Amino acid sequence: SEPRRPGPEEARTHCPYCALQCATRLSGDREAGVTVEPADFPVNRGKLCQKGWTAPELLGVPDRLTSPLVRGSDGRLAPASWETALDTVAGRLRRIRERHGPDAVGVFGGGGLTNEKAYLLGKFARLALGTSQIDYNGRFCMSSAAAAGNDAFGLDRGLPFPVTDLGDAGTVLLAGANVAETMPPLMQHLDRPRLIVVDPRRSATARRAALHLRPAPGTDLALALGLLHIAVTEGLADTGYIERRTRGYEEAVGRAMGWWPERVEAVTGVPASDQRTAVRMLAEHPRTYVLTGRGAEQHSQGTATAAAFINLALALGLPGTTGAGYGCLTGQGNGQGGREHGQKSDQLPGYRSITDPAARAQVAGVWGVRPETLPGPGRTAWELLDALGGDRGIRALLVFASNPVVSAPHSARVADRLAALDLLVVADFVPSDTARTADVVLPVAQWAEEEGTMTSLEGRVLRRRALLTPPPGVRDDLRVLRDLAVRLGEPASRYPTEPRAVFEELRAASRGGRADYSGISYERLDAGEALHWPCPDTAPDHPGTPRLFLDRFAHPDGRARFAAVDHRGPAETTSEEYPVYATTGRVLAHYQSGAQTRRVAELAEAAPEAYVEVHPDTAARCRLTDRGLARVSSARGAMTARVRLDPTLRPDTVFVPFHFARDGRANLFTHPALDPRSGMPEFKVSAVRLDPLAE
Ligand code: SF4
């Protein structure tokens, strides 16, 4: 419930960063300064992390973009009027489309966009540009778990239960999720349950675990298969549930039977005794949850790995059971909503397939066009980035709320591909690493200057509210899309610029879809209702669906599906030349590509530069010293990092945060091997070598 109504100089909103979407109350103004405090909300219960507490600093960063920038004939970005910038973009887009067809223009969106922006961006791409080439950075975030969840349950919602349910759990397995650092307020709900943490690192979360399993990078899938093997052979599987509520058990178990504990130990390094302990801990308490994060998902077998953990949960009878379940801890602020409204290459609003004739007909009806005019599926994020340049097909790219120069794998190749474009347009509120390479930069509003909705990791739709008006010279993304669409020949009426009006259209477009928002309104949200999708308007005041699957799963027969998956191993293994595994991840002080948090003084001070955590034995072998500099190189590229010795690491593995720019980009060495089902790159496993560098 919402406590008191905010005053005129206050806004009750949510943190600009991660998918936990902690509630905040903002007050003040630009002159006096903006302050933040946690608002009453069951998810963050009066707490924020360091990023949330310092978020108001984002509103006054010195290099805030307040004027469009256009690259001149001298090669420099120079301020320009909005009219000039938009005319330039539209004119060049028109020429590229005329010469090379609509698919020569690509769009790259972001999981931080509000639902309204994500929706309108998808519509703009399909109608104003007529392109199939749209995808977004969420492909690099939770796409493997989304694919596995859709396959298993017929529906993907990160957590199909409220976060607060976790507090009553007996045991929680966290596979590849370092929530103590990435979402600290979530730990309040994990204080009581016994934690089993799967992570090659002794992360902040692993340090609080009752049991820490440390598989070698790229072997999580073998471990999950082994845990299923033990559950079955020790008679811990819930046979009644399997019989009643699932299909495909025999085939899945058939694969897992090849993964007996000693073999799993040989492949993963996790002792067989710890594997057995883990399964007994999971099975002995009825209130058990299995949760996956990026560590388990960002692999070239990411979908299979998430599916293997879902198999384990299904065998134990957890999903769709009160007080138990499986979930994926979505990372980006609107990582959940961002994947529902049509900025994915294969998808239309309502989280429906773009190849589904019924979905095409309905959405086309809402948009006032014929279904056959809608493009089909396009490339996934990495494929799209790799197809940039005249020789590869895509000649112009529009980037909204994303910084792929830092966040995409094999980032030197991404930078080369961006440079090969005829036109790169970036809409952002700071000169991100990608914006600095653009031909045109469009300055847009940021979180505390805009209205809209976000959907958190538990599928709850939340209101983002404005405290401030944007600075002069800055426009809202919705207006930018409308202004461009009109210049491209679209009727203005097709692109509302009021967030509420866009949401009303989104409701209609989602009606009957998997993510059905048709029963949700700003009025209901502003009245403090807790509405988790699906919330159809089939009944007045539908209460939403905080807990999914309690009666049936979303497949037509109501049953969940086991997946018959097997372990293949990472795309790249260590060699004489590249003898160490590198795995990448996040740290407390920074968010995603760091474009925002590196500009906040306190956060920059807490984590000022790229670093690599190395076991002391490995450091000695590689002639590295604590606090010295190292070059971390793979077959694809090299980055520079400050060495931090960590005796708790596996000696065969180093850890590098990916938030830093220029030669501190971890993604200079990462591998773009893709998961065939989801398009997820293999961020978590690269074979590297480490060399000392002089200061
Ligand atoms: Fe913001 Fe996430 Fe930190 Fe909460 S946990 S304050 S949503 S960054």
TrEMBL record:
It comes from the Bacteria. The keyword Transit peptide does not apply. The keyword Mitochondrion does not apply. Keywords: 4Fe-4S, Iron, Iron-sulfur, Metal-binding. PROSITE patterns: 4FE4S_MOW_BIS_MGD (PS51669). It holds the Pfam family Molybdopterin. Residues 8-63 form the 4Fe-4S Mo/W bis-MGD-type domain. This is Molybdopterin oxidoreductase family protein. It comes from Streptomyces pyxinae.
